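Q: What does the predicted 3D structure of Peroxisomal membrane protein PEX16 look like?
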Amino acid sequence: MTTDQLNGIPIPKSAPPKPSSTSTSTTSLTARLYLPTTYATLPTQWLSTYQAFVRSNSSQVSSLESALRSFTYLLPGTRFADTPLTSESLQTFLSLLTAYNTHLLASPPFSPQRRYERFWEAKSGIYARCAALLRTIQYTQLLLEMLAKRAGEKARWRVIVLLEVVKAVCRLCMGRVSGSRPVIATGIGDERTERRAESPPTEEDGHAEGAQVDGAMKEGGEWKMPRTGMRLPQLPSSSPNGVMGGESITEFLTSRVITADEIKSARRLVRKLGTLPGHLAELMYILRPVAYAVALQRCQANRKDWRPWLLGMSMEVAARQLSKADVKESVVGGARGLSGVEREELKRRGWGMAWWGMRGAFYENVTSGIVKGVAGRFKGKAVLDMVGVVVEDYDFLWAEYYFPTATL
């Protein structure tokens, strides 16, 4: 017998369990590094502070964004070292910041296009991720091209083709998730409807607040009906020539008319593609930038080669003609039967075809000489000299980079 047994102390039959390793793995990084908890929560606190500042100072934030963006328009060119890269870096940062601020300040009523986008973003996580990635690439693509160009032309064209492929995949996924509907151009949205700054009450509204006329109470510029409690917006004062507060009576009444797009559900704002020409048109329109970028990559040695330009232009014209045939066949009333969102998208795609005059061989053989001639005529004149310098600076971007003239 051992000494412990003689003293009456029981001996355990098995060794005590070793401390589990999971307890250390669940320990927070802050505790393992012996950092104060306040340091770990600083980023969240800063973000909350910034969000509160933007929401309470929306008009000042919008004015600052506009001022900085106007300043970047005067920077592109080659007069100083790395001026295009600096300007584009600032422009990219402002675009991303504006998109985030617009997301914070977004409030109804939304434009029909933004209502359609918000519906599918809320319904499908894939659609939301693809739309966010597409917007991010659109804001940063020129900056990425400038950075890639420093590594050489081969690296630059690889980045261009890769970005066009990613954008095409995102659009194909968005079209698939939405039920074979045309992909509407994504962007920041209509800031006039999504970023409403609370205007401070005027002196007249302050004196009139609480005034009662014919049983209706006027509060903060609105008329509150005593029996129903309904609030009616204040009508602007009219002048003898029929202008009220800077807009005509017709414009004032038209802006308050409820349109069909405002009544429709968000799903019905864009129709499904029901015919083969419609599907071919959308597929060709989405893949056109990829085919054009690959053709330019193969012909980069000769910038005046017409083959890439003819390929891209023919694909876009064919897609537009097939889309018109699809609308005429499947929509009652033709183009008139389309919703406002679809008409705006068709109009945007039509105007986008004008950018073919600033691309590839057409620009090198035709447009470049016209732009340089106009910029040369403006030089040396009192007021137009600054315009000529800006045109010449943008001519540098159009000639040296791919994405300034990209429409997708």
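A (community wiki): The structure tokens above were generated from the sequence. Residues 21-26, 188-193, 196-211 have pLDDT under 50 and may be disordered. The two ends are 89 Å apart (CA to CA).
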